[in-house]
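quick one
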Amino acid sequence: MKITEVKTFPVFYGSRNYLFVKIETDEGIYGVGEFGITWKEQAGVGAIRHMASDLVGQDPLNIEYIWQILFRGDFFPGGRIHMAAISAIDIALWDIKGKALGQPVYMLLGGRLRDRVVCYTGIGGGTPDETARTAKDRVSEGWRYLRMSVLDRDGILEPSTAVRDSVAHFAAAREAVGPEVEICIDVHTRLDPPDTIRLGRKLEPYDPFFIEDPLRCENPQTYRLVRSHVNCPLAVGEHYATKWEFRQLIEEELADYARIDLCIVGGLTEARKVANWAETHYIKIVPHNPLGPVSAAACLHLDVATDNFAVQEGGLVGRTVMEDLFPVQVPYDAGYLIAPDRPGLGVEFDEAAAAKYPFRWGHGPRLQRQDGSFTNW
Ligand SMILES: [Mg+2]
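structure w/ magnesium ion:
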């Protein structure tokens, strides 16, 4: 089998862009992948165009060889955009391999060790009562894991206010759903050490399942500081590309959960390595999935085949999304993704539908401090 064409599809859907890649072969089998760095999709298109010359004519089943060529072939390390492009290609190659061998991708990653994958979904509201109500609603729909975010007020994020508001909303959600539903909180890198430590200490009595991204990712050793003050599990890693960026986090046990983003880290090939490395430190994976149906499917296959899996970010799972672009998607039921039986990833892509959703230039949502300065969203 030979790769004949690599196509990119940047699309604007809902409130943001997505970038899908389709790899075609001379045997009529195609694979689909997804790029993970939002608002940098055209850079991804360019990176994938550069890589296409290394792909056309290759046997798509030689995934590790192709990964190494794309990663190291041009001498200079390419960075995170480059890795997100490799991720999209790598996921498409696993899709092709599964279809070629007549097996779901999880069977190629070690096999099926669970039938379904538990997911979390988001809660929130303008007041603690509203957050509590959404928490109850989600639990009544079948969700067993919930996640709220650290809160701004109408686009303004003042750390002390955000800490107080977030604790009040978390406490209300805990009161509403009781002790047996797990609740996570995503700081989303919005705080720096003093305030993220204040938040963590105030949340301890309410038993968070994890505190996510308590800091930005550039300086992993600062997690030591948070860990030495906060007695709650931490979940970190959605910014990281490659196993090397996860190295310190895992080896120094700076987090309890590895938030691998399969569409940034280097695809299923690299995510499998990070997950296995995490296993040696009793760190479980909670794959990051804010993306589309291809990302959700890739996460599902890794989770089905990985023992040290904790919970999956639901993202758009379970809602009606992109049904014309992806007329076949992985199965879902009441807070769980279900291991599919179809060969490959188990999604089908209609490239003609992509033309209905043209790419839009722009940037993501942003937050300010009261004084007008910029702060992390
Ligand atoms: Mg996150």
